[in-house]
Model the fold of this input.
Amino acid sequence: MRKILIVDDEFLVRIGVKALTNWESHGYQIVGEAASGREALEKIEKLRPDIVLTDLKMDEMDGFELIASCRKKYPKIKFIVLSVLDDAENVKRAMKLGAVDYIFKLKLNAAEFLEILNEQEYEEPADEREQFVRKNISDIKRLLVQLASEQEYTDYDRLVKTFEKFGFQVNFEAPYCVLMIRYAHCGRRDERPDKAQILEDTIENMIRNVFGERLTIETYGYSEKCLVSIINMDRQEDYEDICEAAMERYEALCEYGSRYANVEMEGALSPCFKGIRRFSEAVFCCEKAFSLAEDPAPGALLVYHSDTRKEIPVIKEFIRDNLSKNFTVGEAAKHCHMSESYFAHVFKDETGFSFMDYVNRQRMAKARELLKKTDMTVREIAQAVGVENPNYFSVVFVKLCGESPSEYRSRYRFDVRKDKNRWKKQEKTESERGKRNIED
Done:
């Protein structure tokens, strides 16, 4: 699999290149992106791409400096210039520095792009198994997800191993929900059959790029003009987090689909499930959501609400309102008028988490909010979310969030400063472009 790095200071250009085709089915993998030559150098050191698609005019370090800097250190990298139409002199200069070809980024075409990439000479040919997977990846993914959705299918252990064998990043042992996307082309009705797969690949890439910014997601073709995505919950999320992020990202997906692929979409999100045996139920919930929707608003994601026990939303609200209190499973069960064992079973079945695991996740979510928005000490925050022992609080925080409270606070504040500087720089660049356009 040949690795590609995209370097361009325009976000839409980077998205456009990534969504152009199913790169993996052609033997290429987009391993990263960068908004400047300086950032690209850091990514090249870590990712070691085979191909770098680069713009020439960028802040901090332009494409010329990037190509020149890599010429001796990374002589095997193929640099292909993303050029504008009237940039012939700059393209020639880049070619002299070591670029191997160029393509007009305002007229991106998958066939032309792949032709340029395939013309290059690479050192190590892909082995036969990789070539087979690459050529049949869409069919393999479709078959696997269709088998998983069949209620009559029983060889689940073998199916899970097959998902793992082909390297698909989905964990059925962790809580997950299913996003189903249906789409219709807004163009001519006599759409050629050979373009159907290209369109599906384009939408799959859009889903990966748009949702992948916030969620751990793997997308599969399911049926004609229908895709399903499996969204895994990570250590910092619960179902409410997933719903919020999915609805926000789905709106952006619809906009991209309309703008770049000329398609209209409708989407549905299932409840939370755990285990591959319940995947068919998750798919059914999405289909049920479509059938129940009478007149959904454009860009609105349908969220299927199962027949949740009425006590569960009550106890969830009670938990959020009383995080500073030290309550037990028995007290929660009593609040719901259930036995402790029955309550524990119902709660886990409805939420995908044990009661105390859910409580701890809510406590750490509140702790992250306090770390971001206040100057409270770690000890004070621990007490505010109902954990008396600050050392135990830190242990739970690391387990669920992957870093210590102090590391989280430092990283968040660094990221905020970084984002502010980036947006200021982008606003300045756009302002300068606007002035140039007016002068022209």
